[in-house]
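check these tokens.
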Amino acid sequence: MTGTVNKVILVGRLGSDPEIRVSQEGNKIARFSVATSESWNDKNTNEKKEKTEWHRIVVFSKGLAQVIENYVKKGSQVYLEGQLRTNKYTDQAGIEKFSTEVHLTNYNSEFKMLDTKNDNPSFNTPNDNPSLNSPNVENSTNNKSNDKMPEAFDIEDDVPF
């Protein structure tokens, strides 16, 4: 094999609000955990079973960390693509341990928020402020005479099939 691939794709929900830190260079770094679940029916008991896996996510992309800080909260559903990284460290008792994380960097990664405002009440956008809403066609024109469809209009006349 001439090459290898280190790519992780996850769709899950945040277990807590993201933790935002600032590096010595002034770049924001976001850390959070995402839960993914699978469920099945036990063949012997026909009981519904569920298993949840927790994944540690670290975002090193400055702009993406800013978006996560402003819009992503506990319970948010997200889609992400990143790379696995395993860190080796020694705990206070002197025992070597390993920690595996999914890293999202400025390249080779993707992040999408899957929630809508109705799914996650903590999701706030500028459109939540009515004074910032852009005008739609209905309220941008003063001519209201075209609002009604003519009574003799037959929609079937213009259908080509």
About this structure: The longest strand covers residues 28-41. The domain at 1-39+49-123 is CATH 2.40.50.140 (OB fold (Dihydrolipoamide Acetyltransferase, E2P)).
